[in-house]
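Input record, target 12 of the design panel.
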């Protein structure tokens, strides 16, 4: 399996002839959807779901399918026949990948801001875990954790403790578009040190892929 980051929280997984994309949002490179067979969307915030881009991609490739929960499905009303709604604990196959939905709620940004639905996606029984905007535990061993590192709802200490608890073989930082180059350097240095004895932490730049067993 090959994993490529396409900016912020968006990744593309390729295995055999299947292409699966997770969270193509406003900060992502639209090329991520070229040739995609399936899309998973964790929640409704624009940095995770670029509605116009997804609708255009599905129109160009009608066999593409989208899996998400009901709140996001409502945003994609024009694609009703291509969208499948799922909920916490459900398992399904998308683009040849086995997927289980976990979690259920977005992390709290502020008590005055309502909490929306958020599904994390566990791919291939723990080969990859994308938590979306949450620190929901996957409930199983994880090889590669896609680790949110910068967000209005997140402290760096929380990201470090989350990664330590999940204890993946590798932690790859995502959700980082709001950081400057200097900020990325600081976050990577701190998390690299905090996780050194727990997991391998390594940044992958946009368009740079990594192989996952």
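The sequence produced for target 12 reads:
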């Amino acid at each position: 399996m090959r994993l490529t980051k396409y900016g912020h929280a968006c990744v593309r997984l390729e295995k055999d002839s299947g292409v699966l994309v997770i969270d193509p949002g406003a900060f992502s490179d639209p090329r991520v959807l070229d040739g995609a067979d399936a899309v998973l969307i964790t929640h409704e915030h624009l940095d995770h779901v670029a509605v116009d881009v997804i609708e255009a991609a599905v129109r160009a490739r009608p066999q593409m399918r989208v899996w998400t929960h009901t709140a996001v499905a409502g945003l994609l009303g024009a694609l009703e026949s291509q969208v499948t709604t799922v909920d916490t604990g459900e398992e399904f196959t998308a683009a040849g990948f086995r997927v289980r939905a976990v979690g259920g709620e977005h992390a709290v940004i502020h008590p005055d801001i309502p909490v929306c639905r958020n599904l994390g996606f566990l791919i291939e029984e723990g080969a990859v875990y994308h938590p979306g905007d949450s620190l929901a535990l996957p409930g199983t061993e994880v090889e590669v954790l896609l680790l949110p590192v910068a967000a209005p709802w997140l402290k760096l200490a929380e990201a470090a403790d989350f990664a330590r608890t999940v204890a993946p073989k590798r932690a790859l930082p995502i959700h980082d578009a709001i950081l400057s180059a200097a900020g990325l350097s600081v976050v990577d240095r701190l998390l690299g040190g905090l996780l050194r004895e727990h997991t391998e932490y390594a940044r992958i730049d946009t368009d740079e892929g990594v192989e996952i067993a």
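The domain at 2-211 is CATH 3.60.15.10 (Metallo-beta-lactamase; Chain A).
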